[in-house]
Amino acid sequence: METILQITDLEVSYVSIVALKDITFNVKSGEIVVLVGANGAGKTTTLRAISGLVKPKKGEIIFEGKRIDHLHPHKIVRLGISHAPEGRRIFGTLTVYENLMLGAYTQKQIDKNTLEWIYNLFPRLKERSKQLAGTLSGGEQQMLAVGRALMSKPKLLLLDEPSLGLSPALTKIIFDTVKQIRNSGVTILMVEQNAKAALKFANRGYVLEVGKIVLSGTSEELLSSQKVVEAYLGRK
Question: Which of 7, 132, 167, 175 has fewest C-beta within 10 Å?
């Protein structure tokens, strides 16, 4: 598999606080890669740096052979990276359909096939297309956040805590859908608090602690790592 995303020696600071220190990792085309770590480890900052929402102090972000760490977010979206942020960030006073249309703002015209594909992934969104997004349940809002990100037809989808606040049943639905998205040809880099569930279906993972990558490996390797088990999987 070809490398679609290469991060090299990435450092991000918020004023005097170093959020990421010399982060280096890669994502290959067709993979699901998960970033694991405690709150404040730098997982969300990593995704925000890739999508251009924060600018690195140093280091390189290469997407499909092109350096993107100096680009504005809308240009990064046009290149093929889309970001479903933590907390969903939907527009509650707009309808489901209007939220989805905002996800396609970089496209010259709305791709009806993409919209229908998203409705097939998340039938509830089609059922509630005229409903105000702010009246949706938490699970439906998460579906909308992911669907909106997919409207730009990304090659790489960044998912930040897609299962946050969801029941186990809804979490399973979201994760099953993530696998369907990957099977359709979209590469996925995700941050996930539910490390065990995420590692079970991801290809590889990286463990972050205080802004540094301290461990990496296949999902099987990380699931069997005593350090990962004790720190993130809730058992000894």
Answer: 167
